[in-house]
């Protein structure tokens, strides 16, 4: 993906490209930039979103012709020509069986603050508001730490990814919500809530919880509480309120009803998950909700390790914490501070 990102960026913004006169800047947007990508399930593919931001006043230009500029440039490439697909707001490159790359042409919005953009829309044959960089800054701010944006003259670096243990809780919550959605709607993808709505609502209602479990519970309950009794929930871009992420619900009210039902079912299943009484229940619920065989393997490995500690006489209840812990040696186990040693299981 990183190699493709750099190659496409160089082709669009290279010195011999006709686009250079528009001073393009290439950068990532969406889950790729936010570090909330989830591994696709089934026949789905990774979705890589790029922005090709030009300089100039878009109000003097035809939005459809702007899409055509990107499309024509890609078709001049020997490899990309057969991969090009025109979409409503972008030009897609299909990398067979791996991922697809959506390239969104954009111009700065002359009437709004820096970072706000206008992007072409084929359906309305006009420009629509957006603000991917500002949105990313907002989301990183909600994660409770500052994002440092690197920039080069033409192509910004491919986003770095945090290891899971270093990833902000909000990002992990968003990934879990998206995975749960993918599992539930694996047979009817057109009904699934879109990622930007999930991400925005999670970011809006996140209150800095360190616990992913607690944070997800609070977010889901806050979303349910925010759903109005009449009308629909509006999900605006927090970085550019002129952009309504949920505008398609106006034309498809059944999709909105589906979203409300999805939240209610999610809350119930998440509550049941947190209330699991043992690892067998926990594994079954995780597999049902997230489809992850690795969770079952992890729990089996944990159970085997605990039994190993118990048989070796190294499993104890900590005097101060009141919870199960392991000790490394028999000498350590005999210390007063080690707590109460759990006896071997000899009653079979």
Explain how this protein is built:
By secondary structure, the protein is α+β, with helices and mostly antiparallel strands. It has helices at residues 2-13, 31-34, 63-75, 132-142, 169-184, 195-205, 212-226, 248-251, 253-274, 279-290, 293-312, 330-333, and strands spanning 25-29, 46-53, 84-86, 91-95, 99-108, 117-121, 126-130, 236-237, 240-244, 315-317, 324-326, 340-341. It is elongated, with a radius of gyration of 25 Å. It starts with a helix and ends in a 7-residue tail after the last strand. Residues 145-153 have low confidence and may be disordered.
Considering the chains and any ligands shown, give keywords for the structure.
348 residues, alpha+beta, three-stranded antiparallel sheet
């Amino acid at each position: 993906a990183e190699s493709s990102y750099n190659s496409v960026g160089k082709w669009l913004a290279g010195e011999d490209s006709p686009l250079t006169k528009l001073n393009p800047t290439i950068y990532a947007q969406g889950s790729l930039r936010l570090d909330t990508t989830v591994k696709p399930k089934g026949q789905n593919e990774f979705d890589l979103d790029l922005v090709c931001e030009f300089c100039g006043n878009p109000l003097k230009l035809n939005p459809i012709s702007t899409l055509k500029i990107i499309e024509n440039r890609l078709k001049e490439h020997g490899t990309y020509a057969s991969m090009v697909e025109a979409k409503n707001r972008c030009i897609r490159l299909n990398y067979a069986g791996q991922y697809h790359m959506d390239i969104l042409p954009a111009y700065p919005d002359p009437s709004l603050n820096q970072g706000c953009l206008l992007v072409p829309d084929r359906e309305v044959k006009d420009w629509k508001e957006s603000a991917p960089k500002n949105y990313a800054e907002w989301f990183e701010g909600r994660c409770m730490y500052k994002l440092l944006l690197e920039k080069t003259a033409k192509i910004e670096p491919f986003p770095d990814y945090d290891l899971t243990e270093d990833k902000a809780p909000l990002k992990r919550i968003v990934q879990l919500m998206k995975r749960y959605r993918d599992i539930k709607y694996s047979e009817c993808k057109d009904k699934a809530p879109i990622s930007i709505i999930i991400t925005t609502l999670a970011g809006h209602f996140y209150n800095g919880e360190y616990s992913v479990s607690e944070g997800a519970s609070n977010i889901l309950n806050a979303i349910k509480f925010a759903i109005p009794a009449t009308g629909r929930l509006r999900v605006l871009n927090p970085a550019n309120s002129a952009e309504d992420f949920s505008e398609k619900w106006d034309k498809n009210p059944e999709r909105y009803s589906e979203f409300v039902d999805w939240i209610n079912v999610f809350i119930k299943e998440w509550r049941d998950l947190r209330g699991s009484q043992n690892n067998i229940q926990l594994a079954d619920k995780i597999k049902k909700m997230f489809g992850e065989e690795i969770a079952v393997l992890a729990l089996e490995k944990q159970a085997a390790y605990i039994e190993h500690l118990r048989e070796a006489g190294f499993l104890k209840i900590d005097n101060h914490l009141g919870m199960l812990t392991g000790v490394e040696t028999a000498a350590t186990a005999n210390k007063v501070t080690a707590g109460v040693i759990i006896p071997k299981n000899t009653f079979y």
